[in-house]
Amino acid sequence: MRRGVPGDDVARICEHSAMTPDRLAVPPAHARFRSTVMPRFAPLPTSPNVIVVGAGAAGIGAARRLIEAGLSVAVLEARDRVGGRAVTTSLRGHPIDLGAHWLHAGPVNPLVALGRARGEPLRKAPQNGHLVIGRRRARPAERRAFSSAFDLADRAMTLGASKTSEDCAVGSLVPVGLGPWRDRIELVHALVSGRPLDEVSLHDWPSLEYGENFFVDGGYGAYLARLSQDLPIVLRMPVTRIDRSADGVKVGTADGASLSAKAVIVTVPIMVLQSSIRFTPALPPAIRSAIDGFISGTYEHAVLHWPSAPFQGRDRLASVIGGRHRPPGMLTRIGGSPFHFFEMDAAMAEGLDAKLAPANAARHLVRAVLAEHFGYRAIDDLAIPAVTEWRRDARSLGSWAVVPPGHAPARVALKAPVDERLWFAGEALSREQWGTAGGAYAEGARAADEVIERFG
Ligand SMILES: Cc1cc2nc3c(=O)[nH]c(=O)nc-3n(C[C@H](O)[C@H](O)[C@H](O)COP(=O)(O)OP(=O)(O)OC[C@H]3O[C@@H](n4cnc5c(N)ncnc54)[C@H](O)[C@@H]3O)c2cc1C
């Protein structure tokens, strides 16, 4: 699940949001992996009713909804594949997600309902995980104490959010009385939030709905790629400007081409919007400041191939407590395979950015952590075939957008259309399912419905 290394090496907000151009010139480590599903697309119409910018979950959700309503659509995608931050690759013959993997919030996630209707191979995520303390398995009483401390913290933060009128950092409401579990609880919440809790808005925090979770055999990225089959999508077409100074909208691309339509739905990640795509005339101040106020959330996978890993069962989370490195989280035996995710939070991943080769530094760190808890002999057969670096991928600049203290109205503010011609969509706009592919898909469909209402 998207569920640190504290103190000195926590990058400051202003530093991590301004990734240097040099860093971005080197492709991120995950970029070399190919997607398992390469769909066929329909040709673009010459004069579409609507242009959709970006073919991640939100763009695919928007395009499907618009086409169902009979509108003509052109989807412009900068990468050489669809899916955005959801992509499945094949490692040693196993489908492995390099981005989104969990279908969270089953009861409200439109991709769960759609998956069921399409007969997609969904499987329910187990509830129970592994708990390792130091070099041993936790005792039943320790498991119960950990779980109670978690509930106590959740209740205190949720209640505190509803009672505190000032939007401060959620970290300020972690209750006392969590005993030895405090550190672990803060780590898990920081991992799921994408930032240390002192950087996360208290008023935004309780908005996330997890509910029951699912996986899809073959990978989440592959599922999204299948959903884009036969859509009018063109790849390798980065949008650089959006002009609404005349009637409708004119969308310009990096190769100098332009395309006009009645409306545009922009689904590129918020962090990318902060630094690229020129809008003419400028965006209204309320929209601009909503965009600029988000901070970049970090969550990265190190993909482990570890056949002899000491974890039974499949698809189980593992909490590994104690030690020098404080590992943020693991998902073990993915789909019953010898693959596992070692998850890196903002503090851990950004601590690696100072190194010359961050992905290799990540491999060293993961080995050191696992050796400390399980011993060197246990990791004899460990390989780390992939490490993700979404934080320095120029098309994402982070794993999802985080609302810092004082910025809680931003998600809703961004839903307002600009001049009835420009809509934004994407994971960042979802109150209930922010930071998720399901939330992004729902937001794409929401923006499409508003466009259909106006132009359909
Ligand atoms: C490691 C990791 C693990 C995650 N785990 C989960 C999980 O388990 N479950 C879950 O639900 N979510 C998870 N997420 C989050 C999830 O992946 C995202 O919230 C979701 O995929 C975002 O969808 P989106 O459509 O809003 O954005 P994106 O998927 O980023 O799509 C935006 C698209 O816009 C394109 N684009 C960018 N710039 C331009 C441009 N100038 N012109 C044209 N196109 C452009 C991008 O290439 C991209 O394809 C995870 C993310 C990461 C990184």
Can you tell me about this structure?
With about 450 residues, this protein is α/β, with parallel strands linked by helices. It contains 13 helices and 22 strands. A 7-stranded mixed beta sheet has the order 7-6-17-18-19-16-20. A 5-stranded parallel beta sheet has the order 9-2-1-13-22, covered by helices on one side. A hairpin with a 2-residue loop joins strand 3 and strand 4 (about 95). It is globular and about 65 Å long. The two termini are about 40 Å apart.
CATH level-3 fold name of the domain at 32-123 and 215-295 and 403-455: FAD/NAD(P)-binding domain
Helix content: 25-40%
Bulk shape: globular
Strand order of the largest sheet: 7-6-17-18-19-16-20
Strand content: 15-25%
N- to C-terminal distance: 39 Å
The CATH superfamily label of the domain at 32-123 and 215-295 and 403-455 reads FAD/NAD(P)-binding domain
Low-confidence stretches: 1-19
CATH architecture of the domain at 32-123 and 215-295 and 403-455: 3-Layer(bba) Sandwich
Rg:
22 Å
